[in-house]
Amino acid sequence: MPRFRQLLLLFLLLWLAVPAVLLAQTETPAAANKRLFDRTVDELNFRTMETVYDKSFARGKFPVSLRTAKARREFDNFPGRDDLKKLFQNYNSVSDRFKSRFGKGRTDLVEFEKQLNTILVDRNFEFFIRVLPRDERIALIRSLQRAIKQGAAQFNASQDPAPEELAADGAAVPPADIDPASASSANTTPEAVAAEDPQPEPEVALASPATGYAGPRSLDTAPRHDWMDYLNLLLSGSSLLLLLYLVTSVLPDLRSRLDALTEDQELPAPRTRRPAPLPEDRYEDEN
Questions:
Q1: Residue 109 structural domain
Q2: Domain assignment of residue 31, yes or no
Q3: Could you say which DSSP state residue 166 is in?
Q4: Class of residue 237 by CB neighbours under 10 A (exposed 0-12, middle 13-18, buried 19+)
Q5: How remote is the C-alpha of 257 from its chain's centroid?
Q6: What is the pTM of this model?
Q7: Contacts of 171 (CB under 8 A, 6+ apart)
Q8: How many domains does the chain have?
Q9: Domain-embedded: residue 231
Q10: pLDDT tens, position by position, 77-89
Q11: What burial class does residue 278 get, using C-beta atoms within 10 Å of its C-beta: 0-12 exposed, 13-18 middle, 19+ buried?
């Protein structure tokens, strides 16, 4: 009976392991590279949203479990910032469509890196990160570039055509499934975008929010002041003037009075001289 259980357990393990091995063997390099591209896009989108969220909420932290578009779609922890919630939802939908940029037409390593780099110069991406200061935008782009290089290092280039074939086929022409705006923006390197501090021009899908949605204010622009700000400024100035009056007028007068009172207490009392005693009269007996 124990031997039968061991055989049953071995059969169960083989039944689970053999299909996985066969699936790994039957998966083509193109399918594996497509899955790698989708996973890299999810990683880029997660890091972008994490940076913007952590900058917008000083006490909040973007959950590390939101590495898929479906998980981010269900996330709604935006306390008091409905405008930011709408922005995140719009960009999550738009950025998930970046996955369709690879898998049709050319599927070599050059196209893999090219389509990932087009995300960093996409107008929707630039519009989404515009709330970050310039230095943080540059740091984010460089971080995403490192993630792209890590994804390219895992690319299976066993079926890539030779460089001579790419030159003969016109490798510089973008595939048909890429829109002209993205193809033209691909000629701009991410390094140049990071150095030039781009001014984004958002697309309608992301930049045309619902009525009443003003979008988050950029940290590089000066805020508008209302009557409350001016009232605070007036009260601060009054407090400063009152402090100067106390330091320059009231405190010196109070100090002089205290010094005078101290001197009066320290003066010694005048001494009174006692009169000298009169000599005593002595009468001696006369003999």
A1: 21-207
A2: yes
A3: H
A4: exposed
A5: 59
A6: 0.51
A7: 106, 110
A8: 1
A9: no
A10: 898 888 888 999 9
A11: exposed
